[in-house]
Amino acid sequence: SCQLDKLAKAAGLQYFGTAIDNPSLNNQNYMRVARDISEFGSITPANGQKWSNTQPSQGRFSYTSGDSIANIAKQSGQQLRCHTLVWYNQLPGWVSSVYGKDQMQRIITAHIQNVAGHYKGQCTHWDVVNEAMEDDGRYRNNPMYRAMGVDYITHAFKTTAQTDPAARLYYNDFNIERCCNAKINATLSMLKTVISAGAPIHGVGMQGHSRVGKSPSKREMKETMAKFGELVDEVAFTEVDIRHTKLPTTAADRDQQALDYVEVVGACLETPKCVGITVWDFTDQYSWIPGQYPGEGEACLWDRNYNKKPAYTAIVNLLQSA
Ligand code: G3I
């Protein structure tokens, strides 16, 4: 049959996955697709495992949102790709008021031991550190960096490896798909720094949020993955969606979107170290894009009425011919 994860596996990838989020779990049309293991072999909680959900106040841990999604994956036989332990965004206020290095280190240790400990054995991958770099190549000046410098990254990876030794540990970021901008060069040198300081990093996740008609080409993405592949065992596209910047769309716009998605999937297929692709939700009904970019959207593979779009069909055709 012609479904995404089945075909991706036949074409040599480890998985084709999707992020899903808590507000959509009571929608039956949504769940029918989300639980379909032939479409999605891997599930990622879009918000449930983030710091603001898992440790909203110091020492008070909550796994309700994350577990709802982990349990869906478990019941459906799908893998769980976990997201994310240390990120500047969706970080509760109490963490931002920590300034001492030792204190911050203890806080990161406790957070990871609890959260990665809770999910131990369930996560095939963890996005351990998310979005640590700025587009201009500087380290993002977040509370963890202010307290610890780049050591917070090393420390986060070491602690996660100790807590859940079976998970594949990723550094994850956006705007690192198109070779080779300032952010990619800075990310490469950051990775060298922390790896030589002992950070056990298995993979680099390229989020893959982009815009129709302005999305990176297959050639550009393969070049980037080759560079990351010199430093780590594997790479993956972790949050793919390709949004229209002008709505409503025409048939030509939707065909262009299909071409753009095919470049991403093709780049992964042609890169031996690229293990899989995750889309950042699968239906326009629940995409994060309109909330963040008013007037833009329709970035997903299914439309809001659960019809498959040309991008879906184009990916299936590519995977079938691979
Ligand atoms: O939880 C509150 C809820 O109480 C309130 O009623 C509602 C009103 O708007 O907001 C809810 O919080 C929202 C949260 O998602 C949970 O739904 C936030 O406003 C909203 O900003 C937040 O957006 C998430 C975003 O990360 C935050 O940066 C998106 O759903 C999520 O898809 C998105 O995911 C990120 C990845 O983690 C990292 N890479 C980029 C990607 C897209 O921004």
UniProtKB/TrEMBL annotation:
GO molecular function: endo-1,4-beta-xylanase activity
Subcellular locations according to the entry: Secreted
UniProt-listed Enzyme Commission number(s): 3.2.1.8
Stretches assigned to the GH10 domain: 1-318
Pathway stated in the Swiss-Prot or TrEMBL entry: Glycan degradation; xylan degradation
Superkingdom assignment: Eukaryota
Gene Ontology biological process terms, A to Z: xylan catabolic process
Catalytic activity: Endohydrolysis of (1->4)-beta-D-xylosidic linkages in xylans
One GO cellular component term noted in the UniProt record for this chain: extracellular region
Top class in the EC scheme: hydrolase
Matching InterPro entries: GH, GH10, GH10_dom
Gene3D superfamilies: Glycosidases (3.20.20.80)
PANTHER family for this protein: ENDO-1,4-BETA-XYLANASE, GLYCOSYL HYDROLASE
Record-stated family: Belongs to the glycosyl hydrolase 10 (cellulase F) family.
Stated name of the protein: Beta-xylanase
Species whose genome carries this gene: Podospora australis
